[in-house]
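This section describes the prediction task in plain terms. A model, or a person checking by hand, is given the sequence of a single protein chain and must write out its three-dimensional structure as a string of tokens. No templates, partner chains or ligands are provided. The sample shown here is typical of the held-out split.
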Amino acid sequence: MLATSLARALAARGIHYGWVMTALALGYGVCASATLGIPGVLLVPMAAEFGWSIGDLSGPLALRMTLFGLVAPFAGALMLRYGPRAVLVASAVLLIGGLLHAMTMSTLWELWLALGTVLGIASGMTSLVLATTIATRWFVARRGLVLGILSAATATGQLVLSLLLLRQGRVGSTVAARQAL
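The expected answer:
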């Protein structure tokens, strides 16, 4: 009902409703891709906090990237069968569950489960498959532009949120260094 009234209001202004879908997919893509970049930035602090080696922490991250690539073809089939909305909701539930589990984990097997398996599957379910689905279902003339915008969500999410974390890390280490003096 909201979608229908929003589509009518936008059509009255000459705006295609597909741009709403593009904006929503862009927002989700930025958030989902941030889960791929954030753990890499946090490797050293996590190693220090848990006493694990960088190798211990890198294994689950490699599994996550592997699953990210392996799940994409199956995600495309799921989108064809159940629709993008169902796959996006399933991906979001897995993403949130994986992040919550990662925030509360304390053992290495939980790291493999949360960051490696769950986040790998969640981010792989929507990667470029969602961008392609939105572009082909909603656009003809601007399909390439939409695909480019949604493809940029992956890099944007990793870049922006990784830079924010790095900045926070520098601020925290500066404060700690001043307190030590």
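For orientation: Residues 171-181 have pLDDT under 50 and may be disordered.
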